[in-house]
């Protein structure tokens, strides 16, 4: 099997992940006493909103209290539990990060429906400020109503922080039953343009339209990111996935721009694949893909398709990278059907945390977590029900922590 563990493709090229590092004295310079309210081990799914003097406030869902470790360079990390299963899996991921003494000072902030319900704002100013300041965040999934209601908080955050590269490593994990046991590819999805820009209108009562916006600048930077990533991680091929045969202007611009960037990387083979064919090829022979660079909508769909090939949505991590911030989150959504039942698989979010540790050069801790995770996944009694196991969210995390020693 080609999969050697999560070998990481996150490039820190434009980021300043260490800028918010600071040496801790006995106490954090930014104490967060409100973080001590909740417990980590038991899954929490209900936001404990409180009303003080007529104002809504939000009690944290997760125990983020983390005593400063002497001699460790600490980074501030914005933690957004999210909606649905988000708080349950985030609590477990934080447990693991704390267990390995990851050098983070955790700041919990809300976003999504939980924030709307309790603070009256989908993306509160305090959350934005925290991400702007820390430049590093881990986020649980947030719920978006279908066919109406508020705009996706993910799309909003990606646009607000200009997180233009969505990186999703898709690799078969040992012990996880899947269609293909030897997949090792990375999807690099443009994250700010395309139909996801949210430019929609009703033309008349019976007609709606959505504008697909693709720019040369957006195409250039995502293509460069993908080729750089391929080069730095020893990949030999980039596949540009598009539908330029039909959308000659928008996808035509994306394809042409990405190809031009590709010419600057003579050691990397470029191929272009029409998106419908790419879907079939991925199902039939995914091993032929190495790095895929594609537009926003195609990348979203291909990610879920690929997740299905390696065991489901519960196992695919992701990172949203921009020049000024990085937000790590799983590919899956808030899974309302299993929220609050201690059934959710924390693997994808934990792997996203592993990507984050790689991103801040904490490779040893990242490797240790990945090793423990793979060992735990191999145990049918440990892994969660979505992977055919008997474990729960909490007991699976217990097993990972036990493997970590
Ligand atoms: P979903 O990913 O939440 O769920 C699809 C299926 O996969 C469900 O059967 C669910 O139980 C299962 N599943 C997902 N994650 C799982 C996990 N960790 N462990 C075990 N099973 C898991 O997709 P769906 O139902 O289309 O979306 C639900 C909500 O999530 C929507 O409001 C959607 O907009 C939102 N969403 C949010 C994302 C984000 O915040 N990054 C990404 C995708 C969807």
Helix and strand pattern: EEEEHEHHEHEEEEHEHEHEHEEHHH
The shape, in one word, is globular
The overall average pLDDT, rounded, is 84
Report the CATH topology name of the largest domain.
Isopropylmalate Dehydrogenase
Biggest sheet character:
11 strands, mixed
CATH hierarchy class name of the largest domain:
Alpha Beta
Could you say which small molecules are bound to this protein? 1,4-dihydronicotinamide adenine dinucleotide
CATH superfamily of the largest domain: Isopropylmalate Dehydrogenase
Kindly report the oligomeric state of this protein. single chain
Tell me roughly what share of residues is in helical segments: 25-40%
Strand content: 15-25%
CATH-derived architecture of the largest domain: 3-Layer(aba) Sandwich
Tally of structural domains: 2
Taking the alpha carbons of the first and last residues, their distance comes to 27 Å
The residue ranges in which pLDDT falls below 50 over 5 or more consecutive positions are 1-57
What would you call the structural class? alpha/beta
Radius of gyration over all CA atoms, rounded: 21 Å
Per DSSP E runs of 2 or more residues, the count of β-strands stands at 15
So how many helices?
A: 11
């Amino acid at each position: 099997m080609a999969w050697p563990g999560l070998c990481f493709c996150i490039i820190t090229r434009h980021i300043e992940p260490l800028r918010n590092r600071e040496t801790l004295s006995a106490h954090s310079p930014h104490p967060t006493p409100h973080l001590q309210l909740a417990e980590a081990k038991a899954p929490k799914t209900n936001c404990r909103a409180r009303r003080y003097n007529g104002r809504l406030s939000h009690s944290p869902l997760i125990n983020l209290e983390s005593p400063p470790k002497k001699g460790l360079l600490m980074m501030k990390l914005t933690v957004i539990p999210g909606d649905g299963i988000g708080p349950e899996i985030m609590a477990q991921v934080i447990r693991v990060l704390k267990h390995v003494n990851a050098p983070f000072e955790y700041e919990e902030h809300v976003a999504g429906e939980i924030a709307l319900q309790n603070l009256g704002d989908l993306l509160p100013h305090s959350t934005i400020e925290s991400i702007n300041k820390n430049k590093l965040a881990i986020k649980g999934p947030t719920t978006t109503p279908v066919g109406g209601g508020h705009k996706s908080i993910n799309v909003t955050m990606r646009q607000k922080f200009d997180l233009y590269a969505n990186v999703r490593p898709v690799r078969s994990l040992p012990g996880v039953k899947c269609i293909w046991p030897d997949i090792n590819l990375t999807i690099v999805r443009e994250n700010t343009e395309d139909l996801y820009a949210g430019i929609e209108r009703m033309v008349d009562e019976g007609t709606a339209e959505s504008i697909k916006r693709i720019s040369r600048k957006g195409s250039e930077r995502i293509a460069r990111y993908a080729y750089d990533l391929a080069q730095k991680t020893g990949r030999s091929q980039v596949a540009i996935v598009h539908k330029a045969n039909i959308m000659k202007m928008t996808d035509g611009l994306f394809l042409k721009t990405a190809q031009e960037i590709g010419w600057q990387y003579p050691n990397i083979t470029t191929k272009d694949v029409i998106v419908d064919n790419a879907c079939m090829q991925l199902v039939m022979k995914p091993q032929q893909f190495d790095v895929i660079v594609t537009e926003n909508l195609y990348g979203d769909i291909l990610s879920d398709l690929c997740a299905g090939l390696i065991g489901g949505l519960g196992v695919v991590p992701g990172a949203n990278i921009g020049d000024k911030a990085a937000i790590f989150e799983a590919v899956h959504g808030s899974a309302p059907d299993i929220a609050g039942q201690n059934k959710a698989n924390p693997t994808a979010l934990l792997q996203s945390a592993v990507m984050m540790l790689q991103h801040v050069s904490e490779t040893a801790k990242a490797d240790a977590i990945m090793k423990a995770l793979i060992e735990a996944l191999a145990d049918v009694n440990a892994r969660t029900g979505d992977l055919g196991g008997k474990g729960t969210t909490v007991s699976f995390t217990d097993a990972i922590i036990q493997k970590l020693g």
